Amino acid sequence: MEFNVSIASYTPLGHVFKRIEVTSPDVCEINRFIEADCVSFNVGPLQDGKHWCELSDSDEIIHPKDLVYGNGMTYVSFKVREKSCRR
Questions:
Q1: What is the Cα–Cα distance from 6 to 72, expressed in whole angstroms?
Q2: Composition of the chain by helix, strand, coil, percent to 5
Q3: CB neighbours (10 Å) of residue 24?
Q4: pLDDT digits over 65-75, tens only?
């Protein structure tokens, strides 16, 4: 899997299916692997040192017009490489 470039201050509008409070941005990335429908995630700071983690079922490729300004959030999408099974 490859990460695309992070985009500061943007988020995919209407595609977040899970929002959780996490202790660090790395925990958000781990949650991305747990959720099969996750295509991108947003992470942003909270005042107490924790972070919002928003998991999304879309990205800037699938719905480019839905990527909107999201103050304080950092948007990250990724490419999933298809595995080939050979017998």
A1: 13
A2: 15, 45, 40
A3: 13
A4: 988 887 788 99
